[in-house]
Specification:
The protein has 15 helices and no strands. It is mainly alpha-helical and 334 residues long. The protein has one domain. The two termini are 34 Å apart.
């Protein structure tokens, strides 16, 4: 049975990718004049950006009943759709840095390390891939009912907090990132099964109330000794991510622009390094936009547009190649 596309989840993916791009654009030294404000904004969304992506991934895993598929099929599909495109873009970026960076930080002999260890924003793709494989295997073998999955969720929350102290190299294939994101993935996977109760206004109001309280506490703790209580891998940080992201998932946002962006969120994410570089050259150096806020807006929009256009072009090329290939097969058959 075909599933109707969930435009609310697409819109949330669009919102998440916009927040991620703004974070990485604003990291530039060009915006030192507004650095304090940018730091506050980025601090506020610390526990929302990537957790929102992950909760949506867990939601789609359950919504599309991917647990019914074979582990082999899911692995192959994820390698084709996510891992290989990510490695292709990663390779192009490393080659670019080897050519244009004056220092010898990037060596061809060290290229393999970028494939098996966490590097830049690519860690997220590795972590989600690891989560999909582990989660599929676990629910097919050890956690076949809801009670065992709740126990798994509690265990993942404990590991979320203490994951940095487990005594293994968590940089290997972004294992640390997978541990950090797994509670959010599990939370998202519960949503389709709780849909009737989850959509009740009372639960929605409670989620919003809890989110506002925690976010206000986080905001008032900014640049105080208490700010560390809201960092990643803390109980309060996890509470903010779970409460607010689950509230958003129940909000029925369905914004058309964000939904369109969300449909291309993966391409925008893996291509953001090139998009940011190109957009910065166009809007900052060629057009010479001096106002920092306007520059951030245009570079962000340019990065998003770049990811969408590259995705459309590549998809069109593959569709045309497939059409030609199928056409030749039909001619031969005749």
């Amino acid at each position: 049975m075909l599933k109707i596309r969930d435009y609310n989840a697409d819109a949330l993916r669009g919102l998440a990718i916009v927040l991620v791009i703004i974070l990485h654009v604003s990291a530039s030294e060009r915006y030192l004049d507004i650095k304090n404000t940018l730091d506050l904004i980025n601090y506020f969304f610390t526990n929302i950006r990537i957790p929102l992506f992950t909760i949506i991934s867990g939601y789609f895993f359950a919504y599309l009943h991917l647990e019914r598929k074979k582990l082999k099929d899911i692995t192959i599909a994820k390698i084709k759709r996510a891992v290989l495109p990510m490695y292709l873009v990663l390779t192009l970026e490393i080659i670019y840095l080897m050519i244009f960076k004056s220092n010898n930080e990037y060596q061809i002999s060290e290229l393999y390390k970028y494939y098996i260890y966490s590097y830049d924003h690519y860690w997220f793709v590795q972590a989600i891939f690891a989560i999909f494989i582990f989660h599929t295997f676990t629910i097919k073998t050890l956690c076949k009912n809801h009670k065992s999955r709740i126990i798994l969720f509690i265990a993942s929350c404990v590991l979320y907090i203490f994951g940095d102290n487990i005594g293994i190299d968590t940089n290997f294939f972004s294992l640390g990132g997978a541990i950090y994101l797994y509670p959010y993935f599990l939370a998202g996977s519960f949503v389709p099964y709780l849909k009737t109760k989850y959509e009740q206004k009372t639960i929605r109001r409670n989620l919003l109330f809890l989110s506002i309280c925690l976010l206000l506490l986080q905001l008032f703790s900014y640049k105080t000794p208490f700010s560390t209580y809201f960092d990643k891998r803390t109980i309060l940080g996890l509470g903010i991510g779970l409460a607010f992201c689950c509230y958003l998932l129940n909000l029925n946002l369905k914004n058309k622009i964000l939904s369109k962006i969300g449909a291309y969120s993966f391409s925008i994410y893996i291509l953001q390094s090139f998009g940011i570089k190109l957009s910065t050259i166009v809007f900052y150096k060629i057009i010479n936009i001096q106002n920092s806020w306007i520059s951030i807006i245009f570079v962000t929009l340019g990065t998003i547009a770049f990811g969408i256009m590259v995705s459309i072009v590549i998809t069109s090329i593959f569709k045309k190649a497939k059409y030609v290939h199928d056409r030749k097969r039909k001619i031969r058959a005749i």
